[in-house]
Amino acid sequence: MIDPLFREMIGELPSFAPEVTAVIRAEIPQYSVVPEQEHMRDVRAQLHWLLEGLDQGIMPSPGYLRESSRLGAARAAQGLPIEALLGAYHIGYRETWNAMMRHAVGRGQQAVTELAAQVTLFWAWIRELTNAVAVAYEGVVRSELSAQEDRYRRLIEAMASADPADEATVTLARSLGYDPAGEFQAFRGRSGDLPSGGLESFRRYAATVPGVVVATIHGGAMSVLSQGVQDRVILRSLSRAIRAARTVKQGAGATRLPLGIGLPRAGLPGAADSFQDADGALSLALRQGGGAVRYSVAWLQASLAEQSRRLGDVLGAGARTAAAHPHLAAAVTAYADHGFVPTAAARALNVHPNTVVYRLDRWTTLTGWDPRTRDGLLRSLLALDLCPVAVPAAQMPRP
Q1: From the centroid of its chain, how far is CA 384?
Q2: Which of 43, 112, 212, 340 has the fewest CB atoms lying closer than 10 Å?
């Protein structure tokens, strides 16, 4: 008794499909990205396949599955969320089942019973078609993400080129939403310091703020290039991402993420310079045991940080002395930080002023640099900031 029912439903599709389309668009507002006539046409085609399959008692053909895959790919390209796409299928089939049941009720109990027996085939159609749609959708999204990742990487690589403002880079920057003539700020870290999933979490957080942020991992480095976003917002988003991605065990006593923050600079050449800033600041952050270092604050040390190996022959005496006698290094730092006044440095260290004078003299004896002179103080402070410990303390002479 229900075979004519399916054919009647097929005949009603010119009016029924627009009704179903309207219900979908009302319940799922995201469908506004899909042109209404296109949406209506696809709903009608999908329902026609379903009703024909029920009429003939067959599963979806390979041709129907290919068309469903095409539809899933098209919706992905239109930016429709996958949950909205799958939700639309369920709404469409819900409305169709209810309409068929109304027809069956009008035909009597036997028709209702026969229609109920078709529920397994009905749900098999839903499963097969939505699976084809979801697989195609995921493939398009994965391909788009891969292409986007490639654009991110190429832009960051262009910052190290001889001419970061060439036509290809300008076009690439525009495709990612940047104003090539605007102000850029670069950030650099080490990819190995990010927990698993940290980059993806950071991108999600950064996407919620105004401005443009590109973040990628390439060649062992984490690179971030922002425009129109304050650096404190980038730091906050990165901290949130790391907390979200870390396990509780990793979070306990974890080392602060070393990060170099470049100076905001204008244009794509400025973006390249900002990355150089960030690289120097990162080198300094690594020598300081982690944390964020701003080039705008520590520009001198950051500029010299990457030359620390070569500077070791010049500044190594200070680093070795500091490792063996940290109280002498503390006296030098306090002296510089408190107006070059021994009494003020003594108060900061909670010692007698004569002790500070003695320690400065002892530092001069061991290093050959008098911190009460311009050259001696400069060498001393740079040694403390830049040079790693080269000789164990046990090998150093005692005062």
Answers
A1: 35
A2: 340
| Single-letter amino acid code for the residue at 172 | L
Q: Which architecture characterizes domain 3-144 according to CATH?
A: Orthogonal Bundle (1.10)
Ranges of beta strands (E only) in 27-146 are none
Task: Specify whether the CB–CB gap between 223 and 256 falls below 8 A.
Answer: no
User: How confident is the model at residue 390, as a pLDDT?
Assistant: 38
Segment holding 273, helix H or strand E: helix 267-287
Query: Contact at 8 Å (CB) between 110 and 2?
Result: no
pLDDT in tens, 62-115: 888 888 888 888 888 888 888 899 999 999 999 999 999 998 898 888 888 988
Q: Would you say 115 and 101 are in contact if contact means Cβ atoms under 8 Å apart?
A: yes
Instruction: Supply angle C-alpha 152, 261, 237, rounded to 5.
Output: 70
Q: What is the spatial distance between Cα 271 and Cα 172, in angstroms, rounded to a whole number? A: 14
Q: How far is the C-alpha of 140 from the C-alpha of 90, rounded, in Å?
A: 22
